[in-house]
């Protein structure tokens, strides 16, 4: 999923200093995700703060695209047609200067397009299998799904992702493309396989749900303060969004009400001990209203609670209305301190509001906010609800559980993420089958970014052959078969499949010839210098006129590159590395660390 067609569009310009991508990444890994750095670097841009005085506003990249534009509108369109980010500004001329905002962050094995994170799974799946693969996601708190093909314009940016042939996508209204009377077909996005189906790139074709294809998955990354500032600016005329230290709030455009759900008997009567009816209420209507507006803004949104901390943190933002309805509500007549609220997955109960006298609890069933105070309110009262966009902080947790067929798991903390290697020391597979097995639990064939990471991984590699396997040892070589060579067993020689390819596809400048021979696959590693400069004993590290794939030979402590299904002669014998052991890799799951919910800072457990 790196740069293919994208490279043709985004020809590198001279940077303020000449940097390789690895150097650029080291400089900006704390301020931008992998996709943003790649886009900015390929455009020859620089990453700078949006506002040096307000770090929470995030970062931006200013770069140039090779397109002439004659006015401001044309310049903005030129930038938007090439760069799938919020375009903050554009300057027209013989070349168009674009400044785009880097507000969100995708996992390293995903590609960011207009606030969504996309990943290609390169195995072959039925529609049902594709949905299951996508649901493996990137973490317990971040849900993934089959990518929604919402517009033909999306194909412009999907074209930047490499290796898409024909992949399942979710087309919300298939009638726009084909009839599907039996609901037994699904939409497949066609890119690299366009020639095969005699159609143009970027098309949607219908296939039976039992047919097998790649799949493109997507998830929505967590909202950040920088994104909130941007949304407040963009939607100011529609939703007056206020940004403060804990997040952002905005009122609904229409009135809502706390709803009554039941009248409950008290001691056999429908009244409490004071003779008042015992009504029950909930705030689900407010939750749905805030969530629907959040969907428009592409953020999670919940009604604020009526807690004093809410009010004190945001009261300076409340303007123009007599009151704003919150998610806090009260049941059971005169019962005191019974206000409760639900905001997202957080429930608050008790201590939300203490009135000056018991009279404030008699007929009040909800709690609203004005610019000066919190007010107990009748349930039937209609008012604008106050919604909050929540800033959710994530951190990398433990490695996801391993499948039963994985022998070892090695967790390593890289500068920008935590990466998990899943090692199979006892089974050998073709590369294609190894890819499918890795993708079955949301991983890919693995890669490494540094010598410390590699040395830790290498200690876990311990090939296990079946009893009676053939081992030939000479003074100059060691040949190992996965079984008895006299019974047709295949030669392995302690090789492990890894996620790399030759010719090099990313960050390829360097080496003795000026071009590196191989690079890591998208999402598993980026340090091509380490891959190409490490030990390659035992096999030529040379470019060939065919595609080769990266492996690691354990007994030689060396990276190798081999073509698939390629026989060659070595020391008078035919060598065919059809199958190898393999290492899968994926980022550790993202888990919520600190969550801002309704302006209440809470630590998730």
Automatic annotation (TrEMBL):
<keyword id="KW-0732">Signal</keyword>
<feature type="signal peptide">
    <location>
        <begin position="1"/>
        <end position="16"/>
    </location>
</feature>
<protein>
    <submittedName>
        <fullName>C-type LECtin</fullName>
    </submittedName>
</protein>
<dbReference type="InterPro" id="IPR016187">
    <property type="entry name" value="CTDL_fold"/>
</dbReference>
């Amino acid at each position: 999923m790196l740069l293919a067609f994208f490279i043709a569009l985004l020809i590198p310009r001279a940077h303020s200093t000449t940097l390789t991508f690895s150097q650029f990444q080291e400089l900006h890994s704390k301020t931008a995700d992998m996709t943003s750095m790649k886009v900015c670097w390929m455009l020859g841009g620089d990453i700078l703060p949006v506002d040096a005085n307000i770090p929470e506003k995030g970062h931006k990249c200013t770069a140039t695209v090779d397109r002439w534009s004659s006015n401001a509108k044309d310049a903005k369109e030129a930038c938007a047609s090439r760069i799938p980010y919020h375009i903050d500004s554009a300057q027209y001329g013989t070349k168009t200067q674009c400044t785009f905002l880097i507000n969100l962050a995708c996992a390293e094995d995903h590609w960011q397009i207009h606030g969504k994170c996309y990943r290609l799974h390169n195995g072959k799946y039925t529609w049902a299998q594709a949905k299951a693969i996508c649901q493996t996601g990137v973490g317990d708190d971040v849900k993934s799904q089959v990518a929604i093909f919402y517009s033909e314009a999306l194909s412009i940016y999907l074209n930047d992702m490499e290796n898409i042939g024909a992949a399942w996508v979710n087309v919300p209204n298939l009638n726009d493309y084909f009839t599907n009377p039996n609901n037994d077909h699904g939409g497949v996005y066609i890119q690299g396989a366009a020639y095969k189906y005699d159609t143009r790139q970027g098309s949607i074709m219908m296939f039976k749900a039992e047919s097998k294809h790649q799949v493109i998955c997507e998830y929505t990354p967590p909202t950040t303060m920088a994104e909130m500032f941007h949304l407040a600016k963009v939607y100011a005329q529609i939703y007056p969004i206020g940004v403060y230290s804990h997040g952002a709030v905005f009122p609904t455009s229409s009135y809502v009400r706390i709803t009554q759900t039941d009248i409950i008997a008290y001691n056999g009567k429908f009244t409490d001990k004071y003779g008042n009816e015992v009504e029950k209420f909930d705030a689900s209507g407010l939750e749905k209203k805030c969530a629907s507006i959040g969907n428009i803004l592409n953020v999670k949104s919940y009604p604020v609670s009526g807690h004093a901390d809410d009010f004190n943190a945001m009261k300076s933002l409340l303007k123009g209305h007599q009151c704003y309805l919150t998610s806090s509500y009260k049941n059971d007549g005169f019962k005191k301190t019974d206000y409760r609220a639900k905001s997202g997955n957080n429930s608050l109960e008790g201590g939300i509001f203490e009135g000056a006298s018991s009279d404030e609890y008699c007929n009040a069933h909800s709690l609203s906010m004005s610019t000066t105070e919190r007010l107990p309110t009748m349930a039937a009262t209609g008012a604008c609800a106050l919604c909050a966009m929540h800033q959710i902080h994530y951190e990398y947790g433990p490695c996801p559980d391993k499948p039963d067929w994985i022998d070892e798991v090695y967790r390593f903390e890289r500068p920008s993420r935590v990466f998990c290697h899943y090692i199979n020391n006892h089974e050998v597979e073709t590369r294609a089958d190894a890819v499918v097995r890795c993708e079955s639990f949301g991983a890919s064939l693995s890669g490494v970014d540094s010598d410390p990471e590699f040395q830790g991984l290498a200690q876990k590699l311990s090939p296990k052959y079946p009893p009676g396997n053939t081992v030939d040892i000479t003074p100059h070589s060691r040949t190992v078969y996965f079984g008895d060579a006299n019974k047709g067993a295949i030669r392995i020689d302690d090789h492990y499949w890894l996620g790399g390819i030759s010719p090099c596809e990313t960050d390829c400048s360097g080496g003795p010839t000026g071009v590196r021979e191989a690079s890591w696959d998208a999402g598993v590693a980026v340090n091509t210098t380490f891959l190409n400069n490490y030990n390659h004993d035992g096999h030529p590290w040379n470019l060939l006129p065919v595609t080769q794939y990266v492996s690691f030979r354990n007994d030689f402590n060396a990276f190798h590159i081999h073509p698939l299904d390629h026989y060659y002669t070595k020391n008078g014998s035919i060598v065919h590395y059809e199958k190898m052991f393999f290492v899968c890799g994926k980022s550790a799951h993202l888990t919520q660390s600190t969550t801002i919910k309704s302006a209440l800072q809470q630590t998730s457990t």
